[in-house]
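Researcher: Re-running this chain for the archive, since the previous output was lost when a drive failed. Same request as before.
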Amino acid sequence: MGCNLAIAGVTGAVGQEFLKILEARDFPFDSLKMLASSRSAGKKIKFKGKEYIVEELTKKSFGRVDVALFSAGAARSREFAPAAVEGGTVVVDNSSAFRTDPDVPLVIPEINPQKIAENKGIIANPNCSTIIGIVPVWPLHKANPVKRMVVSTYQAASGAGTSAMLELEEQTREILDGKEPTCKAFPYQIAFNVFSHNSALGPNGYNQEEMKMVNETRKIFDCADIAITCTCIRIPVFRAHCESINLEFSEAITPDQVRDLLGTAPGVSVLDDRENNRFPMPIDASGKDDILVGRIRQDESVPENRGINIWVAGDQLRKGAALNAVQIAEKLL
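Model: Regenerated structure tokens:
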């Protein structure tokens, strides 16, 4: 039996990915509402052989809707999600609006699916960097608690939406044609360049993206005292984030033990070919559901073999956003 489904923000990069994943996974629905801003209202979208007309997202959009997948930005989520919940809809929200709310479950199905049942109408999807980083860390943490994580991210343009992906393409053409690059979606040139993540800096010198990873990991792992520090960077890649993750464990652990644990972990694939110096790349992860893990090696600077380095790559639009939300919706049903 299906549900009455709505997608808020259907015309955006994640919204479009929702549709691909719902079709690929044959998600059971009886009816589907496609919602977006007034700018996109009236657009026609073909899905599973049927043509849908995009409706304007309003507080009255959710009559008889069982589940709503939101990816319309934090401001719109704060404005419209409570109205949806009031009408009996369960909202799976992809924005940062509710992630730190103690009454809202923050869920990665491979880690804490039991939290879904605790929802009071809203379930938060974690930040893309958090999901991609901690899906492979969780099975290791369960086997041998992680005391400290040091994370450096290499984040694709897709994290800033369709306009940012188009800007990377446009700037590349402009620069190769000898023109000045046009900067609109990003504050700096993204083509042929690398810069600190463009979220706001806090008084501690960390940006919002970095603090999201710290706070969300602690909440999802239900481990307030895990020590985490992050540096988040934008790189000129269309989609799929990469992360260098350094882990300090409570007890000794070997790279072979890590490979064994990750070899059977849900949502993870090991790509760790030392012989050919072949490890996960964004082009490997793009369009894939699993988080790819490689460069698994001992951190020889940590005493008693308690340190491990890993390198991960994951599709920011899929597992980092749309797929995780759809998996939550599947468990709701």
